[in-house]
Amino acid sequence: MNKSWLEEVRLISSSRRSRALGAFELAPLVDVILMLVIFSLLVTGFIYTPGIQVDIPAISNPNVIQGRTFTVTITKDEAIYIENSEEPIISMDDLILQLKEFAERTRDGIVVLKADYNVKHGFLMKLMENIRSAGVRKIAFEGKKE
Fold first, then answer.
1. Which terminus of the chain, N or C, has fewer Cβ atoms within 10 Å?
2. Could you write out the three-class secondary structure of the chain?
3. Residues 113 and 89 both lie in one domain
4. d(CA 71, CA 109)
5. Are residues 19 and 71 in the same domain?
6. 10 Å Cβ neighbour count for 65?
7. What is the reported pLDDT for 35?
8. Domain for residue 19, yes or no?
9. Phi and psi at residue 113, in whole multiples of 5°?
10. Does residue 98 carry a pLDDT above 80?
11. 18-64 residue pLDDT tens
12. From CA 49, how far away is CA 61, in angstroms rounded?
């Protein structure tokens, strides 16, 4: 009528053994995969720069600019973008007007040129002339670390 406790233990252990051989736990596997994904994202130095994408020249020892800045981005087809705008500047007069307003607001402001690697030297020189004519004296070029 009643089974002995030894028979019950044998039945339980045999059912566990058969379940253990055929079962596969997914929770530890998912944990390990997520840890690997997080680790790879942290190690690769994933950095996303929002805005217009340009190929910035690499330099060995870039300096950090501190203070108020006004960013001018120049793409390889010589389109000019200011700050975080999505639309390019139509004329150089618009750029000079924006720069004059910046120079009036901040006396010690710095204009940062974020130029594509393939922009022509002559175009950059004309742009720098226009920046200086707007009243800004401090101009810096953005570079990325090698």
1. N
2. CCCCHHHHHHHHHHHHHHHHHHCCCCHHHHHHHHHHHHHHHHHCCCCCCCCCCCCCCEECCCCCCCCCEEEEEECCCCCEEECCCCCCCCCHHHHHHHHHHHHHHCCCCEEEEEECCCCCHHHHHHHHHHHHHCCCCEEEECCEEC
3. yes
4. 11
5. no
6. 12
7. 92
8. yes
9. -90, 120
10. yes
11. 555 556 778 888 999 999 998 888 877 666 656 666 766 676 766 66
12. 20
Residues in the chain: 146
Domain range for residue 101?
A: 58-145
Computed over every residue of the chain, the mean pLDDT equals 79
Amino acid symbol at 34: L
Question: What's the rounded mean pLDDT across residues 95-118?
Answer: 87
Same domain, 78 and 112: yes
Sole residue written with tokens 């942290």 = 42
* Number of domains within the chain: 2
Taking residues 68-84, what's their average pLDDT?
86
* Within-domain flag for 48: no
Single pTM value for the model: 0.57
| 16 lies in some domain | yes
